[in-house]
Amino acid sequence: MIRPIDIARKLNISTSALRHYESWGLVPPPERKANGYRIYTETHAAYFECIRAMYPGFGMELIRKIMPLLHENKITEALWLINEAQANVYDEKQRAEQVLKALKTSDSDEFLPKKKQGWFTIGEVAKVVGVPSSTLRHWEKEGMIIPKRDEENGYRKYSRADIRKLLIIRTLRAAVYSLDTVKEMIAEFDNNNIAQAEKIAKDSLLYMDHLITEQLRGMYYLYKLCAKIASDKKAPFLIKKDDKTNSSLYE
């Protein structure tokens, strides 16, 4: 048996945080003593350690999806969710690199659809920037981008410069800058402070480098937790390829 206070001290959190994780269903319900005190085990401690280790790299929203899957021994489903999160970081990294390229040239043809007219529809821009059209409208409402309008039908007409600016906004949001901070940085860009905009994009890339390092640490603790769960249940959780039969076997 492990006392809650000992787990909390080791993880540098409060015992109330442990109770919150328990109430959210992130750890298996502990048994209770006659006086109502919780009886935490080594497995509970492994869950708590994993939650704290995964939080910086993956966030609580994903953790709240993953932990219940582990309770049900649906480990591969949990791993695919993590794989998706890691792929998203890679996509954001590519977009940040795209921003740097866009800032260094006034010609954005490298990543824009080929077309004769010099403007783009909201649907085309949403595809290039990688966000829903509703997000573009929200950014417009916040005053971060003001596209021109077609005089005949009122449709939005985005220029290449607009798209470069939107790519910067997308990169900043991916690097978890607040909306107010993004507005300040975009104001620098509007004032033709390209050097500052380039620094922002590079800082975003550094943030993503830090993020994947945190994800690796979280994965290490997830592996330890899965091994502990498998040991408790005397059940395998790894899949090993059988060289002779070219098939996959649980071991």
UniProtKB/TrEMBL annotation:
Gene3D superfamilies: 1.10.1660.10. Pfam families: MerR, MerR_1. Keywords: DNA-binding, Repressor, Transcription, Transcription regulation. Residues 1-69, 119-188 form the HTH merR-type domain. GO terms for molecular function: DNA binding. The keyword Cell division does not apply. The keyword rRNA processing does not apply. It comes from the Bacteria. This is MerR family transcriptional regulator.
